[in-house]
Design goal:
The chain is α+β, with helices and mostly antiparallel strands. The protein starts with a strand and ends with a helix. It has five helices and 13 strands. Strands 9-1-2-12-13 form a five-stranded antiparallel beta sheet, with helices on one face. The longest helix has 18 residues. It has a single domain, classed as Aminohydrolase, N-terminal nucleophile (Ntn) domain (Glutamine Phosphoribosylpyrophosphate, subunit 1, domain 1, 4-Layer Sandwich). The C terminus is likely disordered. Helix 1 packs across helix 2.
Length: 233
């Protein structure tokens, strides 16, 4: 699957998503935003996995929250997950403002993936940071990514500067087409665009931080520009 990153502060949730939509061989079919926002509430729903399923689930979550409120929506989801479909594969991140607890994010998925400790079909609190990326088992750290720790900047300023670098790191890791099966073909699956969604009590905004030169009808190649430069040389 592609990628979701979410970070939480006492007054803000910031979500980063890519926009790659690909077939089961890794060929890029389209580039599309993978986060849906409410027009009435400070609420965003991001997803990775099947596009049509993700868009449908996101719209239903937002519709429920607009009808009954954020906290009741989370209670509703906990019940729905008891009978949630096991396919197609989907991971959903909800970022919004709880009526009782303020800014929060919650995650659920319908399959167990790799070494993830969160149980599928349950609503999970990821803590201050959620990193929804495929990997190859390597240790993950800001130092490994070449990203300095946040020092004094707001979270929004820091991610505006380094969010694309974070996604570039994972974009360069080939991951299984089926994240629940390590034996499936590994491809580069992060691409298209990198969007930053900011949720506070007073606003929800989406900014496109970056567009990659990925081509519809081809597989994502994070080394494309370098290989072309070498051909010319």
């Amino acid at each position: 699957m592609s990628g979701i990153f979410s970070a939480l502060t006492p007054d803000t949730i910031i979500v980063l998503t890519d926009g790659a939509v690909y077939d089961n061989t890794g060929v890029l079919l389209e580039i599309k935003r993978k986060v849906t926002v409410s027009e009435r509430l400070p609420l965003a729903v991001a997803f990775r996995g099947n596009l049509d399923f993700g868009e449908t689930v996101a719209r239903r979550i937002i519709g429920d929250a607009e009808a009954v409120g954020f906290d009741q929506m989370l209670r509703d989801i906990a019940v729905v997950l008891l009978d949630f479909p096991a396919s197609p594969h989907l991971e959903v991140l909800i970022a919004g403002i709880s009526e009782t607890a303020g800014p929060m994010h919650r995650v659920f998925r319908n399959k167990h993936v790799g070494c993830e400790v969160d149980k599928p079909f349950s609503l999970n609190d990821p803590g201050l940071v959620h990193m929804g990326f495929g990997s190859d088992g390597r240790a993950i750290s800001l130092a490994a990514m070449g990203i300095p720790a946040r020092q004094g900047q707001s979270l929004e300023t820091w991610l505006t500067r380094y969010g694309v670098d974070l996604f570039e790191y994972f974009r360069d890791i080939p991951v299984p087409i089926d994240p629940a099966d390590e034996n499936t073909d590994r491809q580069y699956l992060i691409g298209g665009i990198c969007d930053m969604t900011v949720v506070t009590r007073g606003r929800v905004s989406i900014t496109t931080l970056h567009r990659w030169p990925d081509k519809i009808g081809e597989k994502i190649d994070p080394h494309y520009q370098l290989s072309k430069m070498l051909e010319v040389a």
